[in-house]
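Hi V.,

You were right to ask for the full record rather than a summary. Here it is.
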Amino acid sequence: MVEKLWGSRFDTQPPKEFISFISGRDVTIKEGSDFRLVPYDVWGSRVHVIMLVEQSIISKEDGKALILGLREILNKWEKGEFKLEPEKEDVHTQIETALI
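Predicted structure:
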């Protein structure tokens, strides 16, 4: 079983219906809201990386690597090659996992 970001907040796993309701259709269909959020999430992440570099929280080299990785994710999304996986919860987790 894939560990959810919020998984440690529960003593037991929530019912499957709950999981399906919060991350099911939006993640599983191409027209789902999570799929449409990919370019916006990528751009928000790129801006965040720039801020981290400018504040000397991460190095310029790490910033460049992250920006290139985010650009690759966006390119895959534009080509229809970036797939959303329901077990990864939401678009933010999808992009983070792909970037790592």
